[in-house]
Automatic annotation (TrEMBL):
Cofactor: heme
Keywords: Heme, Iron, Metal-binding, Monooxygenase, Oxidoreductase
Pfam families associated with the record: p450 (PF00067)
Name of the protein this chain belongs to: Cytochrome
Membrane-topology descriptor: Single-pass membrane protein
GO molecular function, one term: oxidoreductase activity, acting on paired donors, with incorporation or reduction of molecular oxygen
UniProt-annotated location(s): Membrane
Family membership noted in the UniProt record: Belongs to the cytochrome P450 family.
Superkingdom classification of source: Eukaryota
UniProt GO cellular component terms: membrane
Length: 219
């Protein structure tokens, strides 16, 4: 939640807000996993909803709006005297800074932020697990990454402003995303349209899928 809301929830200090957020996300995932005939026969939704999915969703929406709207208002209050975005700005700050045709109304902003919360929960958790697993399997990569982090951030935590200098960390994350995409079914559309020559002499073959282990050869 740090990059989205600029806040990391502590169950001891933010007990009530953390409880509400956790309950909303949990309920959202449960609704997503419930078998629904309307997913296959949309016309059934008008008169057949045995799991009361529509009713549960309608009850969930006001709770989501209340939570996210409060967070937006906190950011508006914080930013009312600032004209520029700081290096440590979060996603809410970025959305609030949009002007002109790009500016979002409140409903759209709430929808975008909720999508970031809901879709970014399990995907980030899965990515983190795979990163740790790959680092255990590749100690040489782990050592190089540790060296970069020590040189750039030393003993403090990583902030957004550090990312341009953490090129190896970005490469590790991107490689893990390539090998273990959180949404693997989406990767089937990622086919190379032509042979791609990489800087290390490898060639990525035409009509090859980017998902899975790297398949290439030296030119």
């Amino acid at each position: 939640m740090g990059s989205v809301f600029g806040k990391r929830y502590d169950p001891t200090e933010d007990a009530e807000e953390f409880r509400v957020l956790k309950a909303i996300v949990k309920e959202g995932f449960e609704l997503l996993g419930v078998f629904n005939w309307s997913d296959y026969l949309p016309w059934l939704s008008y008169f057949y909803d045995p799991s009361r999915i529509v009713a549960h969703c309608e009850a969930l929406v006001p709770r989501v709006r209340k939570l996210v709207k409060a967070i937006i208002e906190q950011h508006q209050l914080k930013n009312q005297h600032e004209n520029t975005i700081s290096d440590n700005a979060d996603f809410v700050d970025v959305l609030l800074s949009l002007d002109g045709d790009e500016k979002l109304n409140e409903d759209d902003m709430i929808a975008v932020l909720w999508e970031m919360i809901f879709r970014g929960t399990d995907t980030v958790a899965l990515l983190t697990e795979w990163v740790m697993a790959e680092l255990v399997l590749h100690p040489e990569v782990q050592a190089k990454l540790r060296q970069e982090l020590k040189a750039v951030v030393e003993d403090r935590g990583v902030v957004d402003a550090d990312m341009p200098r953490l090129s190896y960390l970005q490469a590790v994350v991107k490689e893990v995303l390539r090998l273990h995409p959180p949404g693997p079914l989406l990767s089937w559309a990622r086919l190379s349209t032509e042979d791609v020559c990489l800087s290390n002499g490898m060639v990525y073959p035409r009509k090859h899928n980017s998902h899975g282990e790297y398949v290439g050869y030296y030119s």
